[in-house]
Write a structure and sequence with these properties.
22% of the residues lie in helices and 38% in strands. By secondary structure, the chain is α+β, with helices and mostly antiparallel strands. It folds into 2 domains: 7-102 and 120-236, PmbA/TldD fold; 243-474, no CATH class. Strands 1, 2, 3, 4, 5, 6, 7 and 8 form an 8-stranded mixed β-sheet that branches. Strands 12-11-10-15-24-21 form a 6-stranded mixed β-sheet. Helix 2 crosses helix 3 and helix 4 crosses helix 6 (224-233). The protein is globular and about 75 Å long. It comes from Clostridium acidisoli DSM 12555. InterPro entries: Metalloprtase-TldD/E_C (IPR045569), Peptidase_U62_metallo (IPR051463), TldD/PmbA_N (IPR035068), TldD/PmbA_sf (IPR036059). Pfam families: PmbA_TldD_3rd. One of its GO terms (molecular function) is metallopeptidase activity. Residues 242-469 form the Metalloprotease TldD/E C-terminal domain.
């Protein structure tokens, strides 16, 4: 079913165009982004249930104007015809004040004027069950059934937590050359199983995501036994002996490696600030020739797929690594202007009240020709790594660290049934990527998490890939 565009934004499109006409009398570039995002988070545990507003909820506008040197922005919550001149005057006054406060003795980087192609386009997503067609009561009842099913797997499962979040995103972007709007729904969910034996407590989870509605609840139900049984197996897990191992990484582990390694490592606003090593390695080998990596709103279909980014740039598919060669980075508009490149549709804001940064969208390794069975059988002593929880990378020095929930032991090409947990995967990014010797033919992408930049700028992203065989340091 087609997702409905926000009435709030549609009703204000003509007024926004009037504001742009008014501001264009003073400024050589003007654009307005309008956002109306709303959703709910549902959670159920043994002790009860809760319904809360989504952390992604927002409603408002941000105007961007060229001030003669660079770009100034002004955010506001509401607009109607009677407020157009008032908002325009406020923007003019603030820009004048900003320019005066810069002072004559301050060295300021001057940006060129953004040049845009004339585009009029729209996108309405599709889901099987629209949020408005499935009540809060229906969702809580479904989650409760999943929770009860998890608890009933074993007496060792002492608690379960099941949650789901549905978010409806609507945005407009209007300038003198662009008239764009989009509306889509994304959802994410978790099933957590908590196991206990004596004083030993372990937790395992499964995540779910996509451009989906409440139909995702059925997917969650299908993973209950698998999630709970692994939580029980973790009760007997041992600590890993630190060292270097051959490993097979599941698609979600491959995804966090891609995200941390050459996701953050090729965000081009870091190039501008000289905080990344990647510019020195463009068109040079940084990975095995088996490795190909993409990012982009159109590269895959998940929570970070869209028609246009928060700067009105149409989403793209960017090849970051091609046959092991680092080809290019991803960028927002201002970084592209500064570096003399074209923006890649990666300008994203945590909300209309915050500036746009270069951010990842759907980041993943592409498929190869190997099978998971062949990967496992080729390992003398190593692990199958699954279920990542977090990661970080240093774009300046290319160190990487990923937290993995567990590894399944492989001896003489066979899974032994032994498990190590938790696992810290570390290393130097090119060493890790150049060690990749096998890549499976299937790609899986998930978007249950969010990506932070600094300490407060969060956006939705997805990551993934095929199974990969590599050499990594574990501890």
């Amino acid at each position: 079913m087609k997702v409905k565009m926000s009435d709030f934004l549609l009703e204000r499109r003509s007024t926004v165009k009037k504001l742009i006409t008014e501001l264009s009398k003073e400024f050589k570039y003007v654009s307005v982004l309008g956002s109306d995002t709303h959703g709910k988070r549902y959670s159920v545990q043994r002790k009860g249930a809760a319904i809360n507003d989504s952390m992604w909820n927002e409603r408002g506008f941000v105007a961007k104007v060229y001030n003669g040197i660079g770009y100034s922005e002004y955010s506001f919550n509401e607009i109607d015809d009677s407020k157009v001149k008032e908002i325009a005057e406020n923007i003019k006054k603030r820009v004048d004040k900003q320019i005066k406060n810069l002072g004559l003795d301050v060295k300021i980087t001057k940006y060129p004027i953004i040049k845009e192609e004339k585009i009029q386009s729209s996108f309405l997503g599709e889901v099987k069950i629209l949020p408005e067609d499935f009540s809060d009561k229906d969702i809580i009842e479904k989650l409760t059934k999943v929770k009860n099913k998890t608890l009933n797997v074993s007496e060792l499962i002492f608690d379960a937590s099941v949650s789901m979040q549905e978010v409806h995103v609507s945005k407009i972007f209007i300038s003198n050359d662009k008239d764009l709007y989009q509306s889509y729904v994304w959802s994410e969910g978790y099933v957590f199983a908590m196991a206990r034996k004596d004083d030993n407590t372990k937790v395992n989870y499964s995540g779910f995501s996509g451009l989906k509605g409440a139909e995702m609840l059925d997917e969650m139900d299908s993973k209950v036994e698998e999630t709970a049984e692994m939580a029980i197996k973790l009760l007997s897990a041992k600590a890993v002996t630190p060292g270097e191992y051959e490993v097979v990484c599941s698609p979600d582990v491959s995804g966090i490696i891609a995200h941390e390694a050459f996701g953050h490592g090729v965000e081009m606003d870091m190039f501008v600030k000289n905080r990344a090593k990647a510019p020195q390695y463009i068109d040079k080998p940084v990975a095995s020739s088996l490795v190909n990596m993409h990012d982009g709103a159109t590269s895959a279909k998940n929570v970070s797929s869209y028609l246009f980014d928060d700067e009105g740039v149409i989403g793209k598919d960017t090849t970051i690594i091609e046959n092991g060669i680092l080809k290019r980075g991803i960028s927002d508009t201002l970084s592209a202007l500064r570096l003399g490149t074209k923006p890649t549709g990666n300008g994203k804001r945590t909300s209309f009240e915050r500036k746009a940064y270069t951010r990842m969208t759907n980041t993943f390794f592409t498929a190869g020709n190997d099978t998971v069975e062949d990967m496992i059988s080729s390992i003398k002593k190593g692990y199958l790594l699954e279920c990542p929880s977090s990661g970080m990378e240093d774009p300046k020095n290319w160190g990487i660290q990923c937290m993995i929930s567990y590894g399944k032991e492989i001896i003489d090409g066979k899974l032994t049934g032994n498990i190590v947990s938790p696992v810290v995967l570390t290393g130097y990014v090119p060493d890790l990527l150049k060690s990749i010797s096998m890549v499976s033919g299937n790609v899986e992408i998930e978007g249950t998490g969010a990506c932070g930049k600094g300490y407060k700028e969060w956006v939705k992203v997805s990551s993934g890939g095929p199974y990969i065989k590599a050499k990594v340091r574990m501890g």
